[in-house]
Amino acid sequence: MIKIFRYLAIAEGYSFLLVLFVTMPLKYLGGIGMPNKIVGMAHGFLFLGYVVLAIVVAQILKWKFKDMIIVILMSVVPFGTFWMKDKYLNDGSEALEAA
């Protein structure tokens, strides 16, 4: 489950950056809205999956409530999911390896 969450965090982070730096300028500066609709919908699904899995992983790893909130909030900060993955999921602890 944690491995899936790692991959989902990376995918969600890239989709957020793609929406923010590619499709939004295309929509508002270039008048091309279709890429924003497609990538935006994919980003929305990834975001929802990220939040749900963050709650599940928080229970598996017995995170404090504050840590779970930080992990969830990192999904709305550019590059936040990459930082979160390094800080909370790559510490090499036994709990991560066992789950």
UniProtKB/TrEMBL annotation:
<keyword id="KW-0812">Transmembrane</keyword>
<feature type="transmembrane region" description="Helical">
    <location>
        <begin position="7"/>
        <end position="26"/>
    </location>
</feature>
<dbReference type="GO" id="GO:0005886">
    <property type="term" value="C:plasma membrane"/>
</dbReference>
<keyword id="KW-1003">Cell membrane</keyword>
<keyword id="KW-1133">Transmembrane helix</keyword>
<keyword id="KW-0472">Membrane</keyword>
<feature type="transmembrane region" description="Helical">
    <location>
        <begin position="38"/>
        <end position="61"/>
    </location>
</feature>
<dbReference type="Pfam" id="PF12823">
    <property type="entry name" value="DUF3817"/>
</dbReference>
<feature type="transmembrane region" description="Helical">
    <location>
        <begin position="68"/>
        <end position="84"/>
    </location>
</feature>
<protein>
    <recommendedName>
        <fullName>DUF3817 domain-containing protein</fullName>
    </recommendedName>
</protein>
<feature type="domain" description="DUF3817">
    <location>
        <begin position="3"/>
        <end position="88"/>
    </location>
</feature>
<dbReference type="InterPro" id="IPR023845">
    <property type="entry name" value="DUF3817_TM"/>
</dbReference>
